[in-house]
Each structure stands twice: as structure tokens, then as C-alpha cells.
TrEMBL record:
Annotated Amidase domain residues: 27-490
Enzyme nomenclature, EC number: 6.3.5.7
Active site feature: 80 (charge relay system), 155 (charge relay system), 179 (acyl-ester intermediate)
Reaction catalyzed: L-glutamyl-tRNA(Gln) + L-glutamine + ATP + H2O = L-glutaminyl-tRNA(Gln) + L-glutamate + ADP + phosphate + H(+)
Family recorded in the similarity comment: Belongs to the amidase family. GatA subfamily.
Entries under InterPro entries matching the protein: Amidase, Amidase_dom, AS_sf, GatA
GO terms under biological process: translation
Molecular functions per Gene Ontology: ATP binding; glutaminyl-tRNA synthase (glutamine-hydrolyzing) activity
Taxonomic lineage: Bacteria, Pseudomonadati, Pseudomonadota, Betaproteobacteria, Burkholderiales
The protein's name in its UniProt record: Glutamyl-tRNA(Gln) amidotransferase subunit A
Amino acid sequence: MSNTLLQFNSLAQLSQALSARKLSATELAQDCLKQIQDQHALNAFVHVDAELTLAQARLADAAIAAGTAGPLTGIPIAHKDLFVTEGWRSTAGSNMLKNYVSPFDATVVRKLREAGCVSLGKLNCDEFAMGSGNEHSAFGPARNPWDPSAVPGGSSGASAAAVAAKLVMATTGTDTGGSVRQPAALCGVSGIKPTYGAVSRYGMIAYGSSLDQAGPLAANAADLVELLDTMSGFDHRDATSAEQCQGVANAPGRIRSEYQSANAQYAAQGAQPLKGLRIGVPREYFGDGLNNEVAQAVEAAIAQFEALGAKRVDISLPRTQLSIPAYYVIAPAEASSNLSRYDGVRYGHRSESYTDLADMTARSRAEGFGPEVQRRILIGTYVLSHGYYDAYYLQAQRLRRMIADDFQAALTTQCDVIMGPVTPTVAAPIGHSQDDPTADWLADVYTLGLNLAGLPGMSIPCGFGRGVSGSQLPVGLQIIGNYFDEGRLLAIAHQYQQTTDWHQRIAGQA
């Protein structure tokens, strides 16, 4: 059976076909389930339930027949296994939650379901979102569709791989230190991390609460608009959810309206739609460690933006390298606190053999958590302990504020957006960091600062570079904006994708 999704380049095209009854949501869901089975070697999905999926598809068909369908009705999606879902298992890629089924949906899941999306199941991820390659999952690594011997990125690796392989049209992911943007870059798809607080974290299994943010992945920027607009909005159940976004209510319609307004402005400027746009290019993003082919692809993308009328401005983000130690103190500290709830008492894995309560907790955690999670819990507990809190955690928080100030200085006085690479290299081979478990941490150098500052950022495909095996692998361009500037970021990315075709390349067919 041929893959039906290969016929469509965008969500809008597929939505029009569904509305015109050229195919039904049920037929489409059945085809997607078949594709997931045929491409099981990618290890992208960790739980599929055809009955649950087809029940949602039938509801979508009924809405289309009744004339009440929206732009996402019948669109096949899938959720990172960090979002709790009623019916499907919610494991966070961990043996600690191996058979857990939530009694409710996360807010992001609920909003997309109510918009008519048809969920195909749950996607593999690094355990509790701790990783940069999807190699730390209790269910084994997901694989990159461009080269199955390479990582798809992490922690939302399977979310990007599923879109790149055309198993679904879109997916959800989470971004704590780059985990939407990095896999999007390595798999050649588009992904956006919104401003912290723009999307509810309710029902999203916590890793680093002050850093975690949900975001969508899809083939192109235009597809991301409808998804992010639907996902975003104030949620009283999330204490970190923003009520206002620079004076505008945080509600569905905000991002779509800003995107349409920016596009209308660009369209009025003719052959140079981005005339007047100042692009900040940090010199720290192009130093030692950046692969030459990645640098060339990113430079070519920036040159294309200049051809569209934008102006390049050289800027400095002097504390870029310091984002690594700051992040890897703050995130493990928050993880140590968040994961303390998994004690074998209330829910999650409980050891079958123990002598007393303390032994039960110790054994349950040792058996349930994988090596990377244990490593980060130990680091986090250490930096929060008496005598070390001031020396490590407090200093990291001070550095965090300084990093945020660097971004603000650039975005308020020198440039409108910032552009650069997402990752220093293309996708690495699976198992490349076995001898040095912290090697992947250095690969996050261009993405961590945004999470520390709470800024929005996205990745779009901009070229290819040669991998270790000799295969051509995708390169991503990172676009960073100021707080709650998601609509304009997506419009800028859309202008680029109107004049390039990197986002249309399909794994196995490029």
C-alpha cells in the first residue's frame, strides 16, 4: 500500500482533500496505521491502539459530514510520550512508568483532540526527556529516517522522525534545552519552541519545570501556525501559564492573527518582502566546533534572507558557552525535585523484593530509572545539598539572568531576530557517545540559552551535510525572536520556505 500522506505537502492541502470527501479520516487513519507497522524498524511509536485512533477518525468524519469541521479535523498526528493521554500508555520513555495509563489528557492533547486531530499513538523519547539523541529510552533508540544508523535527535527524536518519514502530518514535542529544535534540525522538518508560558504544561510529565515548554513539529512553518495556535492559551491549571502576551490575551487566535498580519506586511513589499528586517548573527555561534558543511548551509540560508531584503547584523552573545554549565546545574536540580515523586508508593514501578520502606524506594528507583536519569538526579541532588547550593545552583541562576540580558540587549537595540545553527554537526551515529555520557551535552550549546531565557525559537531545514557513514543528512537553521513573537517568527520562516524547497525533501526520496 502506498503512503497516502506522500500526496500532500501541507496540512492545508490535506484538510481540503478531507473536506471535499476525496478521502475519509477513517481511511486515512487506517493507511497511517499500516505505514507505522511497515516502518516499525524506525522504533518511532511505543504505543498504538487502532480502536482508539479509529474512534477519533469516525468522529472527524461525522464533523466533516455535518459541516462543523475545522482546519485540523481528521489530520493524523501523534504525541510525544511525555504528554499524559487517556487510553494510551504514558511512560515518559521509562521503565518507572512502563504500564502507566493516565485517567486524563494533558491540556495540549485535549486541545488538539477537540480541534479534530486524530491521534495515532505515543512516540518514543529519551527517558523523562533527558537526552539529545533518543538513545536513553527504555524502549530502545528511535532512528533517523534519512539514515537509520544515525540518531534522530532528542529528546523529541521520534516526534521529528515520524514527520520526516511521513507516518503523520504533525507531532507534539517538548523543549527543555532544545528538544524540539534539535531533532527537527537533524531530521529535516520544522519545529518551534514558543515563549515559556505560552502553552500549558498541565499533563506534561515534568523534567525541568522552569525550562520545559511544549511545541509542535511539522513539515513547514505554515503547518506549525495552526498547530501552535490551537495548542497555546492560558490554563488556570498551570501556575506558569501566561494570561497576557505583551498586552494581548494568551488565547487561540493570537498566533494566527500575528502570522497573518506579518505576512500581509511582507506581501506589500513585493520582491523584497523582508526589507527592513534586521537579522542578528552571533559570532559565538560560528566558532570552533561548528562543522564546515553545517556552517555553509546556515550561511547560505542567511544569504537567502538577505536576498529577500533582510539586513545582516553581526552581534555578540558573550555568555553562549556558559549556557552549558548553567543549564546542567539548573535542569538536574529541578529534575531531582520533580522525580522524587517516583518512590514506589503511589504509582510507577515498585520493586518486588525489599526489606522496608526505605529499601523499597531505593530499589524501585534503581530498577525504574535508567543510567542517564540517575546521573542527572545525582547531579541535581548534589548541587542542591547543604554547602553547595550557593556555590552551584545560586550562581547558575545568576548566570541565567545574565544570559537572558544578553539576548535582550541584542533583540531590543541591534536586531529583530537572531539566526544561526541549531546543532554543531549533522546527526551522529547511534552509540557515538557511549564512552563519554556527557559528550551530547556540548551539542546543545546553540539551543540552551533560549530555554534559560524563556525565549521563542524554531528550526527550519536549510540544507544537507555529510554524516559519518557518508550519507547526506539535514541541517537546520535556528530563528530566535523576542518574547511572544511566535507569529512573526513563523511568517519569516514561511517567506524563506516560499523561495526554497529544503522543507519539501522527503527521506528516501531526496
